[in-house]
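Exercise 7b. Backbone tokens:
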């Protein structure tokens, strides 16, 4: 289990603290009595989800300014940007002649920020109701393939054992893995990748992930080369199994 907090998007304004952001709004530190930057530095929390619920160029609390500030003040804990779904889909990107919303720019900014691990969409019902086409756009353009949650290296950096005996039998991939022993390094989930060639196996390419499963079998039909990795309890990924070809 991870423990985190979703603070107001402004820690402190620069006019009150030279370490603060170039903003002019309510301050999490002063008004809500939460020094979340200290909490991250001390390792008291595992992640932060700052609520950056404003448009890109808000005059008092610019999303552009604040993404950069949180990226530079993340310590070694995870930061996920809290996105306001309806604001994002209602506001046009004034710097783009092609984007009718701010969705692409906001996602691109988080992905280009080295110390930000992703986004958290609020409220969830705006996503499930496909407000402004957000779900369609995410599924088609921005989150079209599965991805693995970031690992938690402050807990453990060791890797689980690789799956073994990967084979194809009667329409399914099947494999074996080490037994769980109530350890951080237990193999609790498995990641299945498909590649066109055994010469192009690259675990950094998330578009090749076809499933993340707790099972040790997976029906497949598409020809190609398949490998399986294991994830431990802190999402560290093992080295891949030997590849198997499905014709």
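Sequence design result:
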């Amino acid at each position: 289990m991870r423990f985190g907090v979703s603070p107001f998007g402004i820690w402190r304004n620069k006019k009150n603290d030279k370490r603060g952001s170039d903003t002019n709004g309510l301050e999490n530190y002063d008004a809500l009595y939460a020094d979340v930057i200290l909490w991250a530095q001390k390792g008291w929390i595992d992640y932060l989800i700052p609520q950056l619920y404003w448009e890109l160029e808000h005059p008092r609390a610019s999303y552009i300014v604040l993404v950069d500030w949180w990226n530079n003040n993340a310590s070694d804990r995870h930061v996920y940007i809290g996105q306001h779904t309806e604001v994002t889909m209602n506001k046009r990107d004034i710097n783009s002649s092609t984007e009718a919303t701010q969705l692409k720019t906001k996602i691109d900014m988080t992905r280009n920020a080295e110390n930000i691990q992703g986004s958290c969409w609020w409220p969830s019902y705006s996503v499930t109701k496909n407000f402004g086409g957000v779900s369609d756009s995410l599924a088609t353009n921005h989150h079209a393939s599965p991805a693995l949650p970031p690992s938690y290296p402050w807990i453990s950096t060791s890797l689980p054992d690789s799956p073994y005996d990967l084979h194809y039998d009667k329409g399914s991939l099947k494999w074996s893995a080490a037994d769980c022993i109530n350890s951080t390094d237990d193999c609790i989930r498995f990641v299945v990748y498909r590649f066109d060639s055994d010469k192009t196996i690259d675990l950094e390419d998330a578009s090749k992930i076809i499933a993340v499963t707790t099972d040790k079998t997976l029906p497949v039909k598409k020809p190609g080369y398949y490998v399986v990795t294991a994830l431990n309890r802190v999402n560290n990924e093992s080295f891949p199994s030997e590849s198997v070809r499905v014709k």
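Instructor comment: The radius of gyration is 21 Å. The mean pLDDT is 95.
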